[in-house]
Structures are given as C-alpha cells and as structure tokens.
Amino acid sequence: MSTPFFSNGDYAIEMRNGNIYYGNFRAVRNINLQLKARQITALIGPSGCGKSTVLRAFNRMNDLVPTSRLEGEVLFQGKNIYEKDVDPVEVRRRIGMVFQKPNPFPKSIYENVAWGAKINGFKGNMDELVEQSLRQAALWDEVKDKLKQSGLSLSGGQQQRLCIARTIAVKPEIILMDEPASALDPIATLRIEELIQTLKEKYTIIIVTHNMQQAARASDYTAFFNMDEDRAGYLVEYGRTNDIFTNPQNELTEQYITGRFG
Amino acid sequence: MAAQELNSPAYPEGDALKGQIANRHLVGTVWRSIFLGATIVAIIALVALVYNVVDESFGLVAVQNDVEPEALVRAFFNDELLNSRNTFASENDDELAAALADDPYAIGFFGYAYYRENQDSLRTLRVNGIEPNAETAENGRYLLARPLFIYTAQNIVRQNPAVSLFTNYYLTYVSQEIESVGYFPASESSIAAARQSWIQADGIEVGLGQWPVINPAGAGGQINIVGSSTVYPITQRMVDKFEAAGFAGQINIQVVGTSAGLRALCIDGTADIANASRAIKPAEFEACRSIGRLPVEMRVGTDALAVVVSRANSFLNNVTDDQLREIFTTAETWAEVDPDWPNEPIKRYIPGADSGTLDFFTEVIFDEELSNLPKDTLVEILADSISLGLGRRLEREQRFYADRLVFESQEVWDEVCAGPEPPTGCTLGERSSYNVYELVLERVVNPDVKLTWTLTDSLLRRADIELEMQRQFPNAHLQFRAWLTPDFIVSPQSSTPEFAGVRTAILGTLWVVLITIAFSFPVGVSAAIYLEEYAQDNWLNRLFQTNINNLAGVPSIIYGMLGLAIFVRALEAFTSGAVFGQVEANTTANGRTILSAGLTLGLLILPIIIINAQEAIRAVPSSLRQASYGIGATKWQTVWYHVLPNALPGILTGTILALSRAIGETAPLVVVGASTFITIDPSGPFSKFTVLPIQIYQWTSRPQAEFRNIAAAAILVLLALLLTLNATAVLLRNKYSKQLT
Lengths: 262, 741
Ligand SMILES: Nc1ncnc2c1ncn2[C@@H]1O[C@H](COP(=O)(O)OP(=O)(O)OP(=O)(O)O)[C@@H](O)[C@H]1O
Ligand SMILES: [Mg+2]
Fold this sequence. Notes:
The complex is a heterodimer. Chain A is of the alpha/beta class. Chain A is built from ten helices and ten strands. Chain A has a six-stranded mixed sheet with strand order 6-7-8-3-9-10, sandwiched between helices. The radius of gyration of chain A is 18 Å and the shape is globular. In chain B, α28 (622-630) packs antiparallel against α29 (635-664). Classes of the chains: A alpha/beta, B alpha/beta. At the A-B interface, α2, β6, α3 and α6 of A face α28 and α29 of B.
C-alpha cells in the first residue's frame, strides 16, 4: 500500500485492494486509489486494461453484469459501498455516471432531466431544477425554446450535455465519466472539457480518457493503468497530472504518454 | 520476395477478372430470382385463397318460391279493386256493358272485343294519350296490350306433317277470325314474317311472295297444343275451322299457362305447339335448342283491354295509369282524381277475380314490389298463410301493432305478460313494416335456393346456367346473390342457409378473444419481464425457458384436452359461474363456457406472447437501462418507465400475431365444447358460445351447396376481422414508435 500523497486527507472516494473479476477472469488486481474531492481525476491506460471496470466499480454499475464480482473495499464517506446493507440504487444516485455514447431517454428534453429527480422523490420546483441543471450543463440557451422536443433530436454533443444535465439533476456528489467526448468532434469535445472544468467547483469528477492532451489539459490528477501478461489491469502510477506528464516516475508511464505504446 | 509476389498475382486480372465478375453477377441473379420466385408463390397462394372464397361468396342462384311475390301483389290489388266502394264485378261481360251504358259516372274495363260489340253505347278512353287500335296494341305503345304467339320448332314442322299443315293454315286464316274472339289481328308484316319463319322451318322452296296452298281435307296425324289461356280461344277457333275443313287427325289443346306451355315444348318435348301471351325468353330458347328443337315464332295477334265509359259521359277522354290506380281503388269521386271532373261518385264495373282480364289489368297498372305494400296488407298476407300457433309465437317475440293484437287474445296476452317469464313481445315496440315484409318473405314466399353457381361461372357461363336451371327447376328464377351482406353479419344462426348469419359466431369470437387477451397479455408480458430482467441464469430458469419454447410448438388439440380437464371439468364451479351465482337460466353450458374457451386459448398463445415479448424486451438497447440505473433508478422503475415502453411495439406485434392464431383456432374449442348450433347471442363469460371458425367448419360439412356459400362468406368475415385486428396493431405500434423518437 503506497503512502497517500495528499497533504490533507480530504478524499471523496477510495478503493482499497480492489480486485474485480468477470467470472473467473480477473480484470484488475490490487487497486489502491484515493480520489480527492472537487478535483478532476483522469484514468488513462491502454485499451482493455480495466479503466472502465474500475470506474464502474465506484458506483456499483458492475452489478448489472451478473458475472462480475469485487474483492476489496470501496469507501465512500467512510463506508464500504459493497457492504450488504448498502442500497446500490442510492449509491448510484450519489455517484452519477455519464457514458461514452450519449444515451438520452427517448423522451422530451424536459423529462430527460426531470425523470431522475421525480423517481428519487425530489420535492422542490421541478421547472427550476430543470433550468438550473441545463444551465450548469451549458445547454440551457440552446434548448430553452424546445424543452418538449425529444432528447434524441439534439446533436451528439448536445445529447451528451443533456446526459450530464440529467446526472446533475439528481445532485450527486461524484460524477463518473467514461470517455464522455470520444464520440464527439473536436469543438464539441472542447465544450465538454470546459463544462467539466466548471462542474469541478461542485462535484468530484472521475473521467476515463484515451486522449492524452485531454487528460493533461482537463484533469488535476492522473492515474495510469497497465495490464500484465494475464491481461489483469493494475495501477502503475498515480499523482498530480502535472507531475505525471512532466516527470513520470515509471518508464511505462513515460512510454505511454509519449505515445510509444498503447 | 516482393518481385515473386508480383509475378504470381493473388487476385485474378484481365479475362479471369471479367469471368469472376460475370460469375458474381450470375450468382446474384440466380439468388434474386429464387427470392422473387418464393415471393410470387406466396402472393399466388394468397390471391388463390381470396379468389376462392370470393368466388363462392357471390354468384347466381336459382331461387324457387313457394308463392311468387308478384302473385301476392296481384292478389292484393285484385282484392283492392274488388272491394272498393261502388264496385260491381261480374264474370259476364254483357252485364258489365249493359250497366256501364246508362251511367255517365261509371267506368269499367274488359277485353277490347266486348267494347266493339257495344260501340253504340260505350266509348274507349285513351290511356296515357294512346288510342287503342290494332297498331298501337301491336307495337306496345298502348299500355294495356299483350302479344299473342304460337311457337313450334323446326324439326317438328319437318317431321310432323300435321303440324306443318296446321300452322300454315293458322297463319293463312287467323287474321280473318281473330276479331271474332275479341283480339286485334297481327299486322300484315307480322304475319308475313311469321310465314317466312314457317317456310324456313319447313325447308320448302317457294318463290318470293308465294304461299303454298293448303287443303287439310283428308290429312291425318296428331297435334298436341299446350299453353296460354289468353291464346286458347283463337287457337281453338282455328282448330275448329281446320277440322271443319276436313282434317281427320286428332288435335289436343290444353290450357296450362304460357310458361308451362313453353316448358312442354322446350324441355319435356311433349307439346308440338305452345300458345304464349309473351315472347319466348332467351333461356327457354336455349332450352329448346338444346333438345334439338329450334323454336319457330309466329305472332298471331294482340290482346288489349279497353277502358270504357258510357257515351253519356262527357268529361273523360284520356286517363293516365296513375289516375287509373286512383279511379279503381281509393278515389270516391271524380273530382278527387282531377278537380276539373264532376264531383260525383265513381261507379266501377270490372271483370271478376276468376278472369285473366282482372289479373292482366292489375299486373300492368299496379306494378308494385312486395316490399312496398302497406304494413296492414303484409300482416294480412302473413295471417292468411301461417298457422295460428306460429302467428302467436311471432307475436310474442314482437307484436305487430302497438295498439292491437293479431293472433293472440287480449286476456291470454295480459296473463302471459304478467307471468314470471314474460316474452320479449311484452316490452319491445311494434314490428316495422320492413320486418313484417321479411316475415312474409321467409314464411310465405319462402324462397328456396335450389342451385348456386360461383362468381366465375356466373360471369362466364350465364347461358349454360340458365339452361341448367330451366331443365332442373323450371319454376325457379335466376338471381344474383351476394352471400356476404349486412344481413348475413347481423343475423343469428339459422338452419336455412338463406337466412343464416354469423352474428352469434362473431359475438362468440369477440367474447372469447376478450377473455383470451385479458388472461394471456398480462400474464405473458409479466413472465417475459421476469425471464428477461429478473431471472438469474441458473438451471431452473433455463428449464422454464426451454419449456416455454417447447410449449409454443405443442399441437393445439392438446391444449384443448388440457382446457377440458382443467377449466371445463376441474374448475367447473368457477368457469360455469356457479360460484358467482351467475348460472344463466336455461343454459346447460356447465363448464363449457366462453370463460373456459378464452382461458384455453389464453394458455395456447401464452408461450407465443412470452417469446415475442422476450424478444422485444431484449431488443431494448442496454445503454437505455444503464442511463436509467446511472441516475439512481431501481430495476422496477427502469423496467416500467424505459424497457416496457420501448418494447411495447414489439410486444404488441407479437400479441396480435398470437391473437390472430387464437381467432382462427377450431380444434381446441371443439374439445372444450363450443356449440355447433346456437342462435342465442352470448351475453357474458358464462354463456354457451360458438366461434367463427367452428361455424365455418360446421357449414362446410353440410351437404347443401348453399352452406358452402355462406361458409365462404363467413371466411371473408373472419379474414376481415383478422385484417382489422392487424391494422389496429400496426396503428398502435406506429403510434408508440412515433412517441419514442
Ligand atoms: N461485461 C464483461 N464481461 C466479461 N468481461 C469483461 C466485461 N467487461 C469488460 N470485460 C473485460 O475486462 C477487461 C477490462 O475491460 P474494460 O472495459 O474495463 O477495459 P478498458 O480499459 O475500459 O478498455 P477501453 O479503453 O478499450 O475501454 C477486458 O479484458 C474486458 O474484456
Ligand atoms: Mg472502457
């Protein structure tokens, strides 16, 4: 177990000795990761090394894969979310997720945002919540005149921001993003990155990306994963993004960020 | 190494490449043709099916009535005429003529001949502006005239010298004699044409305008003459004259009516000459030809009625047929008919009911449809023809008049209606005029379909069909009949195919389908949700799944056995409605109810619904589920708000396919105990029932051809029902799909 390098111990979520299996196959091994609150952490690494697996472990999204299993602990607000008495649905409300491909509901823009709040028993003014969430997702100005239209009628970039608004609306503490801009063009990508920067003020953000510039530009911390001969992923190096990109401790990290493998 | 590869290219080039491309195209074309061929086979099968059913559902029928509707109409108007006020009827024309002569306000009609005998005292009227005379009578412009013919056939003229001789004699002298029996002579050109036919028929050679001289003296042989009573007097007169001139053979004359006379000539082949007061019909002509008798037509004169008034009458010259109707029935005074005429009572003098003259007059002047007769008359006709018992039954079903009883006595009626089970007639309103007309049609006219033909035959073989009918059922008439009519759909089952309908079966089908869907849709969709969204992948659930897949392929009869054992027998108390206190009076349905049938069919289509719903649920993209879970939705919320709405179009399609199958099922329902003959509409889940396919099956197994026709019509109804159902499904699906995008 490595010593924590944060000066203060203000962690949003932490994985301890994480081993995640799909059936008999161990996808990642011995992950120890402490993620700081209100910071952006990027998970990088070659394809198949288990970044998405780790990310989904943070809000028990892996539960949806019947064969998956986690050994170890994920501590959220001091509690292991894999304990028996923890309701995974509540975990997912507090730790929201944005997916690689924009996946708005086939409903109106308004309902896309409002639905999550509705089912979670939101008691405030729904119109206000929708507007506020869309504003935070930097989408309000583009859709305020067509809230009744289907979410599917938006462009890819708009759809992704709608998904982010939808996630924000249920007031999570952490937002997990799995390559949220990989299906978008460079301009839409930039807008998402700017958005992520503003969201940082309120939320802890964990983002998986294959885009080195994006990681370098948009994140505060970076975790680099690799996989061994058994194809099991492991954490190679973790630290401030600046340090990782300017002064990597591990040779593999350097090779990866300079594009020599991966 | 690189050079070597270049020397032996890996892909064909040049001619080889061309060959490969050609080959590729060939293979493509062959497959395309195979697919096209398969599609064509499918379309042909469909077209053949529809053609076959439509072909049987429409077409000509030979209908034979117990009583001709025209005869009822004629009898009605004869009565009207005879029973009008100030009407004097007599079979003796002299009496009529004498009575008419003195009275300026009297009117009457009789054969033109009698008028001529009384020209001094009587005057004829123009009818619709046409003066009766030989010319207007023969060309038909004078309304009250009919042609007189004799018919024989070419081979008779050639083989029977007596017939040849007699017809020749007839044509030579008829115009001299005919006025003496009261008819107009045929025009010279008509007689000339008749002679020409005779010459042609006889096949003898004569010069233009020449006519062989006839001398019956000493000739022998036998002649049979059959037919019209109108033509009879002149023919009899010609026979007398012929015999007086020395004919030594034997001549028989029978009066049987025109149609029977032509039948004897053309079908039975028993007559040598037919007397006819109308022209031969094409079908009769064909019938004659088909037995080798080419008909020879000879117009011999014209019969006309004279409408007469006294010479003392100063105001009447012309009447229209509408005025004639009024004058001889409802009108009391002349001024009622025309204000210019005097306000004096009309006195009517008409021939009695036994004479053909009255019939002829009513036929021409009161040319009405049976359905247009007043309700009172129709009720009278009905009352005259049916038994009192049947009348009472019909009256108890629904009364004829709100304010009076026709068959039942008031005391009995009051008693029955106060009784424990009052018949429907006690509460229903009175029968409509049309309803009574239908009763007359059913009970009195009683049309019986003797033969039926397919639509194709009706369109392509009309002549053959007429011949066939003339031969087998000479009293029948051809009629185009659509077996699929609104009446067919709303009428209950009947043992007479002409009156049978599919209402009971349609209602039965709808009820059964309602139960089926109410049971199988929620159960099936729930099971599919469980299997797709909740079930863990363990051996038990795999066993469930395998079972369901196999159940979809189990023959339907086995579901029938299952339904019989479970719903009809084991759960009888429940399916018969006994536990709900719902057993309907006078049904012996026991467990053989709509409920049992619906549940049985529900079981039958359950696997199909489950499998289709599973497919539809599986087709919902997992990204949607993840999105839902990702914002803290539970499994139930995800399924209800996202998976189901998105799967619904697919689920609906599958359900409709399954329902279509249920609607078409016969075997399991036979086992479960559907009734084959039932006329009472099902009224709820605990009723006895029948369904369309069973009705069709039952009709197709009957020997009479008409049942085949109504079976075909019922198949069309079934197809329409299925099409409607499928169209509804498509609409629903499109609606939901649109909501999703
Ligand atoms: N549902 C699953 N069932 C079984 N194996 C899985 C499943 N999801 C992922 N894996 C396996 O787990 C390993 C890690 O996969 P994961 O998707 O986490 O990689 P990744 O780092 O996100 O890759 P990429 O960059 O290509 O998205 C891979 O070997 C993959 O085959
Ligand atoms: Mg991934």
